[in-house]
């Protein structure tokens, strides 16, 4: 990923920022310029809470070159509290403990490195949501 594109996507990658249609209230991630539901162009930035539940998951053994040092790893579809589903890698979890319905939260982690001289790309992943026990 080139530096200008990485810079443009930073709010999306670090803050889980999507879009909200001002006409019908529909939420989207990634953000969209036009609402597919009502065709309105009146969209505003919307920052998701970053918590949700695992909707579906898969364990990846075969990866692209960028991720070969991370395999095997879990990729999940996470349904956020707001109802939007996002695809993300799970982190800080044993692959045998991942289950549909597991509560998770968004964290910023290293995604990959662009070769030896390129930037280190950070972005969102999800980890199990730990609840405090009194």
From TrEMBL:
SUPFAM superfamilies: Nucleic acid-binding proteins. It comes from the Bacteria. InterPro entries: ChsH2_C (IPR002878), ChsH2_Znr (IPR022002), NA-bd_OB-fold (IPR012340), Thioester_dehydratase-like (IPR052513). Residues 12-43 form the ChsH2 rubredoxin-like zinc ribbon domain. Residues 48-109 form the ChsH2 C-terminal OB-fold domain. Pfam families: OB_ChsH2_C (PF01796), zf-ChsH2 (PF12172). This is Zn-ribbon domain-containing OB-fold protein. It comes from Caldithrix abyssi DSM 13497. The lineage of its organism: Bacteria, Pseudomonadati, Calditrichota, Calditrichia, Calditrichales.
